[in-house]
Amino acid sequence: MNYIDPHIHMVSRTTDDYQRMAYAGCAAVSEPAFWAGFDRGTAAAFHDYFRQLTDAEPKRAALFGVRHYCWLCINAKEAENVTLSREVIRLIPEFLKLPNVLGIGEIGLNKNTPNEATVFQEHLDLAARTNELVLIHTPHLADKYKGTRMILDMLANDKRVQPHRVCVDHVEEHTIRPALDAGFWVGMTLYPTTKCTPARAADLIETYGPERILANSAGDWGKSDPLAVPELMQELKRRGHPEALVRRVVYENPLQFWRQSNNWRE
Ligand SMILES: [Zn+2]
What band does 233 get if pLDDT is binned at 50, 70 and 90? Predict the structure, then answer.
């Protein structure tokens, strides 16, 4: 069965990972712009990163028969520098018409600071003015519940936000319900230890049903598993769920969300 990984940072992964993902049935990935493991010093560094996401990485993925899409922004961690963030936000529009760009992301909060909130809202403004989809990173561990609440409040306060065009990512047991209830898509990140394990993600699907739920590996330069989505597929099959349900979560749902993108051509 083919699958899609809607959140993975392929610039940090090797070609061997692409090969193994292709063997496992990966048809497409989407790569949100994120922190590189170090703070970049200039807007020019982000300009190069956006070229990598929109030009170089799709070509590398194509060598393995994997379609590569991406999201553009300055991530929440580097958003602490508001001056730099505004320079980077001004760079984004020139890239939005490129064919593999799905929208603005992964924007969000990291430590739930006022500067992060300012830059988050300025990204939301850009998305509203350009009618782009939005992908949202929610904070880790201890900061997650408060940060998710802050994000949902900021989304509710911007009356231009259309919930079916926004995905709230990295949800867990204590944050999935408010995001789904507000009409947003949600992403479950399958990490070996923190965030959702495949078993916890399967529990969430059994509790809330498959509607507006995505599953991703969020594979990056840290400890993570680019084959986490196939592992969830195995877990769902092991529990006796029909193929149609598995396919809905790992293939049809991401496509349904992406098809709303301005650049979608199929
Ligand atoms: Zn990410």
Answer: very high
Ligand 1: centre distance to CA 135 (Å): 10
Residue 141 has pLDDT above 80, yes or no: no
Nearest to 227 by CA among 190, 172, 252, 187: 190
Please give the distance, rounded to the nearest whole angstrom, from the Cα atom of residue 36 to the centre of ligand 1.
10
CA of 240 to the centre of ligand 1 (A): 30
Q: What is the CATH number of domain 3-258?
A: 3.20.20.140
Ligand 1 centre distance from Cα of residue 112 (Å): 17
What are the extents of the domains in the chain? 3-258
Tokens 């790569």 locate to 31
- Going from the Cα of 8 to the center of ligand 1, the distance in angstroms, rounded, reads 6
In this structure, are residues 32 and 133 in contact, taking their beta carbons and an 8 Å threshold?
Answer: no
Angle between helices 198-208 and 228-238 (to 10 degrees): 60
Please, which residues have CB within 8 angstroms of residue 183's CB and are 6 or more apart in sequence?
163, 164
Calculate the CA 242 to chain-centre distance. Answer: 26
Q: What is the pTM of this model?
A: 0.96
Average pLDDT of the segment spanning 59-84:
98
* pLDDT of 142 higher than 90: no
Ordered strands of the 185-189 beta sheet: 3-5, 26-32, 67-72, 101-108, 133-137, 166-169, 185-189, 213-216
Residues contacting 81, CB < 8 A, separation 6+: 39, 115
Ligand 1 centroid to Cα of residue 3, in Å, is 18
Using alpha carbons only, give the angle 18, 19, 23 rounded to the nearest 5 degrees. 115
